[in-house]
Every structure is written in structure tokens, then in C-alpha cells.
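pasting for the record
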Amino acid sequence: MSDNAIKIGVSNKDGQLGFLSGRGGLREGAGRKGIGCTKKVSLTLPEELWNKLEADCTATALSRSEMIRNIITAYYS
């Protein structure tokens, strides 16, 4: 077993816990840039529509979020 201990620290930006290593660390501006404001929603659809959505996601290699975002964007464009 390694002598390296796992360190957990609090992000100064979001207040969320994260893993820290002996090198590097959390840096302002690091990571993937956001594409918008994230809001969690619950969506109820008939099973038939869920099956169609899942099939389209698989066929296009998109996540559910990407597919639904594309549908909403196309509707409002």
C-alpha cells in the first residue's frame, strides 16, 4: 500500500468538497467552460416517448441532456 494519503479540501469558489493531491490544486479558470446556467428539472413523459428519445440519443451518440437541449434550442430558434 502506498504512503500517499488522500486529502479532501473545500473549493474556495463553490464550497464543494474535492480531492487534493500534493501537486497542483484548484485553480481559478481551470477546467471546461460552462455553456449556460444549470437548473435541474424533472421530466415526466410516456414510456413510448422515453424509448424514442433513448433510441435517438443512441443513434446520434448524444446524451439525454444534449438531445433535449438541441430540441429546445430548435423550438425557440
